[in-house]
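Progress note, sequence design subtask.
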């Protein structure tokens, strides 16, 4: 990555990794909030470990044969363990089953078999597991056995925003590298260099994660966020909620919605954060996720008791937990929006 695109808050972790490049353990675990650059750091380290000319360089040279193979996506000693749903499917075909959101054991076994033979380039082998918390129990246990007897000259780099979901024994066999969110001013400055202006509200919504903001803007979801806020603010009755569910379903199925990643998980996540700010507003605290809507929220919550708003937050939290695979998107949206409307209605006050 060029210097303009490299996030400066990664300089500290990167310097520590480079300083120990010849003493790195077999397993590293990169942790930190979503969108902070953990995978970027992991990929940069993988490039540095595989580069044939990098011994006296801070970064991979990008010109040697291993670097050219890596940049073309064909390095035989670099492996990525990711969920099927996160892969680039260049083969097309008539896939009928929905791609798995887990890292399955068959993929790990294929990597194990590759690690059992000598490195093609005669050097290191690198495996990047992202997100490591997407491993199912069978995969996690198989990886644990691999870490107990790691192949020679092999480095496993695990990436996770939720390390508590990993097996404790797996975590204990990894050296952790913690990557924290930058200060807001540093995040805003980096986003400005990427061409993202006025990013403060998006940083607030995404808990200060600048790479998440950059992705949001790149896929057009920044405009979608403004639409979401306007839609939710306009819910006044059960019929409004049902009508909005229909519009959101059509939005999800349309090209703009597909590009922006509009689905039940995203919408329920945004609505949960909206409800958090309603509770904060009622409690006299500043809005955390939707600062631009602070005035609107203050007027909305004025006639409502705090316990009712907390119930609203819990209702939407339940919808969020079951949002990954709704059997019927329209019904799931209706149920969520009706729960929200009824929870915030002043007519429901005790």
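Output:
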């Amino acid at each position: 990555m060029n210097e303009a695109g490299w996030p400066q808050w990664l300089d500290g972790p990167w310097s520590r990794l480079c300083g120990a490049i010849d003493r790195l353990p077999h397993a590293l675990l990169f942790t930190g909030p979503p969108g902070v650059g953990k995978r970027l750091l992991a990929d940069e380290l993988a490039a540095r470990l595989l580069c044939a000319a990098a011994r006296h360089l801070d970064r991979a040279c990008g010109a040697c044969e291993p670097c050219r193979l890596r940049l073309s996506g064909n390095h035989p000693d670099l492996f990525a363990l990711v969920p099927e749903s996160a892969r680039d499917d260049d083969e097309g075909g008539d896939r009928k089953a929905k791609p798995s959101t887990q890292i399955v054991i068959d993929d790990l076994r294929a990597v194990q078999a590759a690690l059992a033979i000598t490195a093609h380039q005669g050097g290191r082998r690198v495996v990047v597991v992202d997100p490591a918390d997407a491993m199912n129990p069978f995969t996690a246990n198989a990886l644990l056995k691999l870490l107990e007897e790691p192949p020679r000259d092999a480095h496993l780099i695990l990436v996770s925003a939720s390390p508590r979901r990993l097996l404790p024994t797996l975590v204990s066999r990894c050296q952790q590298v913690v990557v924290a969110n930058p200060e807001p001013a540093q995040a805003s400055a980096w986003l400005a260099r990427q061409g993202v202006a006025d990013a403060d509200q998006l940083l607030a919504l995404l808990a200060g994660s600048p790479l998440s903001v950059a992705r949001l803007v790149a896929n057009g979801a920044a405009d979608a966020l403004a639409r979401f806020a306007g839609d939710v603010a306009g819910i006044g009755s059960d019929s409004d909620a049902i009508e909005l569910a229909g519009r959101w379903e059509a939005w999800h199925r349309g090209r703009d919605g597909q590009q922006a990643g509009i689905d039940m998980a995203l919408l329920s996540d945004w609505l949960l954060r909206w409800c958090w700010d309603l509770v904060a507003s009622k409690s006299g605290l500043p809005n955390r996720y939707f600062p631009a809507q602070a005035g609107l929220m203050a007027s909305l919550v004025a006639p409502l008791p705090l316990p009712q708003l907390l119930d609203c937050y819990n209702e939407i939290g339940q919808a969020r937990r079951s949002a990954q695979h709704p059997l019927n998107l329209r019904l799931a949206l209706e149920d969520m929006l009706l729960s929200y409307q009824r929870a915030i209605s002043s007519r429901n006050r005790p």
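Residues 264-282 form the longest helix (19 residues). Work on this subtask will continue into the next period as scheduled.
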